[in-house]
Amino acid sequence: MVSAAVLHLWVLAWLASVLAADRPEKPKNLSCIAVQESEIISSNIKCQWEAVGHQTEAVPTNYTLFIRQTGDKIYTASILGPVNKTTVDLNLFPHHMELEIWVVAQNELGKEESEHLIKLANCFVKTKPPSVAVISEAVFPTSLVMSWNSSIDKSYLETIYEIRFCPLGSQKWFYVPLADTSRYIQSFRLQNLQPDTVYVTQVRCKYNNNNKHCGYWSDWSSNVTERTPEDLPKSKPDVWIITSEEGLNKRQIEFICKDPEFSNGRIRRFNITIEKQKDSIRNGTWEIIPVNRSLTDGSSSKKQITPLKTITLDDEESVTVYVTAINSVGASPQAKLIISRKTREPPAVEKTEVQSHNGQLFLSWKPPNRTVSEYVVEWVSDGERNWQRENGKTNYTAIKGDLKQFVQYRISVYPIYGKLVGKPVLERAYFEQGVPSQGPIVNLSGDPGCYTAKLEWDEIPLIKRRGFITNYTIYYRSGTETRGITVPANTTSYTLTSLSRNTKYDIWIKASTIRGSVNGSNHSFTTLKYAPGEIEGIVVGVSLGFLFVVLMTMLLCFCKKDVIKDNFWPQIPNPGDSTIGNWSPDYPLKAEAPRENCLSGISVLNVDVCDAKCVFEEDKASLPLKKDKYLSEEHSSGIGGSSCMSSPRQSVSDSDEGGDMADTTASTIQYSSVVASSGYKGQNPSSLPQQSIFSRSESTQPLLDCEENHDTMLQEGSRQCFLRQPCFTRNAGNENATNSNDFNPLEMEQQEVLDFCPLEEDTEHTAPADCQSDDWIPAPVSSYMPQLGGYRPQ
Fold it and tell me: Which of 778, 792, 789, 784 is nearest to 644 (CA)?
């Protein structure tokens, strides 16, 4: 049961594949070839065809090749599809016999037969190429003679030939017409060639069946090269100039030259003649410029450029140059070029434009309004110079030189009027642009300031620019903040502003072309903390301010010198002119009410003199003597602003020795006054009998102005002078100390207080009301108290 099912399935699959298969179709494009081996044709014929129709693995198609030779002899070869070629061995190739060839396709559904090929056996032959030789003849500089040998004997088959040639290095072949070689030949002369030119030649052959399309061309023979002989140059040398400025109103002209386009040989020298335009005859300078070149230089498609001569020409001068080229055969036609005065140069072309398109550089221009015989298109780059000439009726051309990528060319158009050179027009162009290979190098111009920095950079070298710079972008960064500024391509310096003080910045510049951008090298700088001259300005300002204050102070001192002198160096009056000499007990004194502004609070050593018992007997006995002694001395005034108390040291008035008086008076100014024994001058006398007392002080304070001019001051009332006199009061705690033997100075110093009351000079001096008491008596003249306050302000 299982085998029956499997068989059933197999049958169904076979039926499906058979139904899916088709009958074989007729094979097409049957071809056969027999190649040459050694010196004869091989006996094996290789045939191939095109299989047509659908084939399956279940129903394969078989192909059978049939070759029938004359005499009904058939050779066959069978193969299994889908292979569509096979080889049949004929044992010996049947030259000059007819062969019939066909192929049959067959499968289980049927068979089909291709078209029959019926040809001579030689029509299926492909021979080897012939061996070729080429020779040149000196008498025929424009031709070469070719010869060859057939690769197979003529008895087997007769062949025809095809010839082609080209100049060395060229990719364009020139073919000799088949009508000139459609017969059995073994040599041929190539004509109308260029003299002194190396040519490459080739030959091939096939079976000749009376110009019927029969047989296969052999492969081309190996290259055979040969140089044609030299001939006279047939064209003029291409003369051109290089012009540059040479000082004031002068030009430097360099004449250069290319070999003639058809030099017909190796140029060995140039003859150049330069004539001044003003010369009536051709008597200019004539020179021979030798040229040393190898044979290969003449065959190069790029013509050599030879410098001829350099001259210096005034702007108002014009010259004509004649150049001929000489080779081994003779001289070329003469070339002529006229250099006009600079002020009379013919007009230039207008509206030039350069474009790169499809791997070429095209140049267009607008012709001038004059008739132009031709144009010279010149291009220069990296020290290399070349030019080409164009017809005067055109205004558009393509640069024919070997242009390079990423190289800038300076392209100029010169109109030529006859032989007169016109003004040029210059354009710059790139055959192809790219990204610059180097960025600009930036540096600082001078030192940076506090808020600004001037940047400078050089243009990228032309060889590394690789295109037209469209713009520069300046980047500067401080910390994490980066800013950019774009400037035009013709800018090489820029000043950064709004920078921060004492800040480090990193800067770089990006150069851009239409193809991309590149960054230059980084440069760092730090802005100044203080601007130049700022510290100096501060110092100068402070100095000027100080100088102004000093000057104003000096000016003020000069204007107020009297006031300053009076304050710092008061005038000391002459004691001899003091009014104290008029003070006496008999001088009429006017009583004056005590002033209210009594100074109090000064603790002094007070002596209780209210009781007459307090006066020592020895002092009483010496009063008349001292009075006379004081009256005999010079009296001085000036008591008004000082205390009546003297220094604790002993006064001269208390010393009986004359020598001590001299020493004392040398260092002190003695003040003295005569007061009543019962109290101060002008005070009301008490019930006790009055007695004159002469008081003396050794104060070092200067006298007062009012003491010298007290009469005037009293009349004007402009100043008041006060005499501070002590007012003695008895301490309440010592009322019972009336006995002189009970007097204790230390106790009195602690308990008594001395008050000063101001008294006006030359007026009635009265004791203040608060200083008077019933027991008040004048102080002994021999008692001196220290001055606590010194000189009091007036």
Answer: 784
Which residues in 131-141 are b (16+ Cβ under 10 Å) and which e?
ebebebeeebb
3-state secondary structure of 697: strand
**SS3 at position 666:** helix
Q: 141-200 pLDDT, tens per residue? A: 999 999 999 989 888 888 999 999 999 989 899 999 988 888 888 999 999 999 989 999
Architecture, CATH, for domain 442-527: Sandwich (2.60)
Range 345-432 has CATH code 2.60.40.10: yes
Contacts for 447-450 with beta carbons within 8 Å, 24 or more apart? Answer: 447/528, 447/532, 448/499, 448/525, 448/526, 448/527, 448/528, 449/527, 449/528, 449/531, 449/532, 450/499, 450/501, 450/527, 450/528, 450/529, 450/530, 450/531
State residue 337 phi and psi, 5-degree precision: -145, 135
127-146 pLDDT, tens digit per residue, is 999 999 999 998 899 999 99
Burial (CB count <10 Å: 0-12, 13-18, 19+), residue 64: middle
Neighbours of 193 (CB within 10 A): 20
When computed from its CA atoms, the radius of gyration of the chain, rounded to whole angstroms, is 71
| Residue indicated by tokens 């980047």 | 475
Torsion angle of C-alpha atoms 115, 118, 123, 124, degrees rounded to 10: 50
Q: Which CATH architecture group holds 18-124? A: Sandwich (2.60)
Q: Domain spans of the chain?
A: 18-124, 129-228, 236-342, 345-432, 442-527
pTM surpassing 0.70?
A: no
**Residue written as token pair 């492969």:** 219
Q: Nearest CA to 463 among 492, 483, 499, 434? A: 434
What whole-number distance in Å separates Cα of residue 310 and Cα of residue 307?
8
How far is 648 from 645, CA to CA, in rounded Å?
Answer: 9
